[in-house]
Amino acid sequence: MNELIWKDHTMTRISKKNAIIIITLLSLVLSGAVYAQEKMLIIRGDDLGMTQGSLVAFEQAFNNGILTAASVMVPTPWFEGAAELCRKNPGWCTGIHLMLVGEWRGYKTRPVLPWSKISSMVDEDGYLYTYPDELWEKNPKLKEIDAEFRAQIDLALKKGINVQYIDTHYMHPSSVTHPGLKELLIKIGEDYDIPVSMLQGEDYSVRIYSTPIDEKLSTAIKSIEDLKPGLNIWVCHPGIDSPEHGALIHANPDHIMSGGGVGKHRAEVLNVLKSIELKSAILKNNVKLVSYQDLWDYDK
Predict the structure, then answer these.
(1) Residue 10, domain member (yes or no)
(2) Distance of CA 274 to the CA centre of its chain
(3) Pairing of strands 94-98, 163-168
(4) pLDDT of 36-84, one tens digit each?
């Protein structure tokens, strides 16, 4: 892990109510080098570009909340909108949420490359499979996965996104079991000179994805209070309560959201990220908010 390197973070359209506390929080990022005894937290938002609502949510999560990194989905319908948003906000820490699956019913996702070139990782109609187990059963070729991953990164770069890390959608690199995939991700990270999220020694210490809606804030605060020194990560999914998000239903029955559906769950995540209570807990517990941009030297 390299010394903390601060890039020109910008904040726009921040409400007066949140400005002082956000500036105070960001000052924690600016202060000094990384020490093992410090409680550091990356707050990574996933699925930017999946929906129009994600664009609204991520802008709020950065400008009025405490999000420190955003993972962009390249093959999804609102990628162009996400790319425009990232270009307008070059101070955001942005990564690529590498996709091998598209998990929603009636909401299919095609890869970036022509599907005839990566036929082992798509169904007979050229769509990504719906969840990892279904994909692994088809024994996808690592060469094809490698090509598609690089195509997603290259398209993001072409569209002007400042790619500062990579991660994987619907599967964590640290626990993936498909032979050779973890090594493949490490090689891609080395080739592009960017870190692979979840392979930098992060402790996945804050989790509220499936927590009941009315318990998300209290669970997040408790997790902040329990953080241990070192590099921690919170992978979250900001959204808004809209018909678009409300229509999202997992293809895997075991992963269907209950108690309000995807829209209400993701909207509450956004509320938590913007809440004064959570910001106060971070300050009270001396948690330093960091991003992959802070922990990696991007100077070529």
Answers:
(1) no
(2) 17
(3) parallel
(4) 689 999 999 999 999 999 999 999 999 999 999 999 999 999 999 999 9
pLDDT tier, 258 (very low <50, low <70, confident <90, very high otherwise): confident
Contacts of 186-191 with CB under 8 Å at 24 or more apart are 188/146, 188/149, 188/150, 188/153
| Other C-beta atoms lying within 10 Å of the C-beta of residue 93 | 24
Task: Give the H/E segment covering residue 46.
Answer: strand 39-48
Residue 74 lies in a domain: yes
* In contact, 217 and 275? CB cutoff 8 Å: yes
Alpha helices in 207-291 (DSSP H): 216-225, 243-246, 261-274, 276-284
- Residues near 207 by beta carbon (within 8 Å), at least 6 away in sequence: 223, 234, 235
Per-residue pLDDT band for 19 (boundaries 50, 70, 90) equals: low
Angstrom CA distances, 133 to 17, 101, 130, 144, 255, stand at 46, 10, 9, 17, 13
Burial class (CB in 10 A: 0-12, 13-18, 19+), 293: buried
Tell me what percent of the residues of the chain surpass a pLDDT of 90: 79
Whether this model's pTM surpasses 0.85? yes
Cα distances from 209 to residues 73, 116, 130, 279, in angstroms, run 18, 35, 19, 19
Look up the CATH number of the domain holding residue 108.
Answer: 3.20.20.370
Answer whether residue 130 is part of any domain.
yes
User: Which of the four pLDDT bands, split at 50, 70 and 90, describes residue 260?
Assistant: confident
Mean per-residue pLDDT over the chain, rounded: 89
In a domain, 298, yes or no: no
The domain containing residue 267 runs over which residues? 16-290
- pLDDT of the residue at 255: 87
Q: How many structural domains comprise the chain?
A: 1
Q: pLDDT tens across 219-230, in order? A: 999 999 999 999
